[in-house]
């Protein structure tokens, strides 16, 4: 883990940006303190429960990076009243109006970032939508606080090869910089220009105009990241320890007590060149067995088998033996 953190810090040191790590991956105060620039942050979270937990541990600079809804604004105000600079994210006029109304009622300005759609992956405003960007910006600037713009290059998870990853990073950068320019042209302040994904953080060639980089899975890495080419399998710093509980020898199965409740149901590698099932099986020292994967999973049972077509053989394991399983997606397994 320490190597992974140092690697990204070293890479970003060549740019004039701040690393704002996403704490949803580790969900741990100790891990958070290892990745943040200081015990006070900055940090990113995916739930208000995470925000509250890390606030209790002294984190004071937090972005709640999931679209805000009116029913959550009371909790946001509570956290802010406790000394946490908690900012929210939105991409609609309706959300902006709700944030503005809550700010007026409370007599404090809630900071918000406008989410930008850089690659069609999920939510956000297109960086060319001048009308919507300025409408939201004006609402926030009047009664709340326009903190800036933010995007996530989720499409980078489908990229293959260095050139494609570099292109994703530039597409991500260009989108938020263009959006920030639109806001500033309309005389709206845009101090924060935030990008974020582990693949683009490791392959960005230019971050001109960007103020901060958000990334989360880099701290542990996982099989999806290895499949993209962002890391090696040996870099993966998170595993699930499982115990052998049975066999179906005629089927070539070893059964363990780590099913999808332990591993998660994320099958992110299924669309990659090498399908790793529900995870790669290793010995207790973390050394992968050759072509051995969790081929299938039930709620509490994992089915270990040799990768189809590999010609591999099952290891000689006994009831009670333990193995480590590397996950497809560290964030969901860690949760």
UniProtKB/TrEMBL annotation:
SUPFAM superfamilies given in the database record: PLP-binding barrel
Keyword Lyase: yes
Listed GO MF terms: D-serine ammonia-lyase activity
Keyword annotations from UniProtKB, A to Z: Lyase
D-serine dehydratase-like domain span: 237-335
Family designation: Belongs to the DSD1 family.
Name of the protein in question: DSD1 family PLP-dependent enzyme
Organism field: Alterirhizorhabdus solaris
